[in-house]
Amino acid sequence: MSNQIKVAIAGAAGRMGKEVVKLVLEDSDLELVAAVNRSQEGTDAGTLVGLPACGIKLTNDLELALVETKPDVLVDFTTPQFAYPNTALAVSHGVRPVVGTTGFTPEQIEELDKQCQSKGLGGLIAPNFSIGAILMMKFAAQAAKYFPHLEIMEFHGDQKLDAPSGTAIKTAELIAQNREEIRQGNPKEEETIEGARGGYYNGFRIHSVRLPGVFAQQEVIFGGFGQTLKIRHDSYERAGYMPGVKMAIEKVMNYTGMVYGFDHFIE
Ligand code: NAD
């Protein structure tokens, strides 16, 4: 019997999904069993990513794909609107979800955790699979103990749907664990243009820059007496997320419950 992990991919024809298709087809520890996408039905998943045909055709029916192919893991890189129902569907069919799609609410994560616990399944929702970005978040959380005044700047392409990015929210949550809530800046400050000071979180601000040509970057800027500290991570291409996705596919096989954040896997 094969020890390969059977993987289905939702959003397989998307920018991230195609990288996952390549990863799974080229990695002998993994087996692609289904590729689901809203468009391009019938296209071979291999040819879609510039590899030889693999015999797995794109389908737009996730439930049927889960029932017919019985994957171990569903990797979801779709849209914030569909990722929650897709993930709930996977769990209901006994399939472990590895979700890169951003935009989940804490209530949705809690509900999915309950469902995973009751089915005895492991799952992961990770706003960022990049190991460098995780280290940036961890270093920022550590710095916040000594530099409680900070702002987060995140930069993404102009077609991104959600703001701030999932990575920025996750960073803010980690920082909040290490820092008392303090309201920064001048209490009398007023915005003459609405939104100029960015989004408010726990006393600090998050700024979302959206521009064509930008991929994914984040800088956390700390201000102290006579000094600033900047912790920055730059992603240049989607392939950089794949070592993290592979690690997640393997990890979810071995625990129960929904984990939020790839940082839990990076010590
Ligand atoms: P994309 O628009 O290129 O791809 C999304 C794909 O999902 C499309 O091909 C679309 O047809 C398909 N799709 C939409 N709804 C679907 C459904 N219900 N079932 C099946 N397929 C469906 O987007 P992208 O750039 O690949 O990003 C996808 C998501 O991943 C976004 O939320 C983005 O923010 C997130 N993202 C996460 C990471 C990470 O490391 N976690 C990295 C980059 C992007």
UniProtKB/TrEMBL annotation:
Look up the EC number in the record and give it.
1.17.1.8
Using the record's annotation, list all stretches that form the Dihydrodipicolinate reductase C-terminal domain. Answer: 132-265
InterPro entries for the chain: DapB_C, DapB_N, DapB_N_CS, DHDPR_bac, NAD(P)-bd_dom_sf
Annotated metabolic or biological route of this protein: Amino-acid biosynthesis; L-lysine biosynthesis via DAP pathway; (S)-tetrahydrodipicolinate from L-aspartate: step 4/4
User: Looking at the record's lineage, which domain of life comes first?
Assistant: Bacteria
GO CC annotations on file: cytosol
Residues binding NADP(+), per UniProt: 38
Q: What does this protein do?
A: Catalyzes the conversion of 4-hydroxy-tetrahydrodipicolinate (HTPA) to tetrahydrodipicolinate.
Q: What is this protein called?
A: 4-hydroxy-tetrahydrodipicolinate reductase
Q: What is the lineage of its organism?
A: Bacteria, Bacillati, Bacillota, Bacilli, Bacillales
- This chain is encoded by the gene named dapB
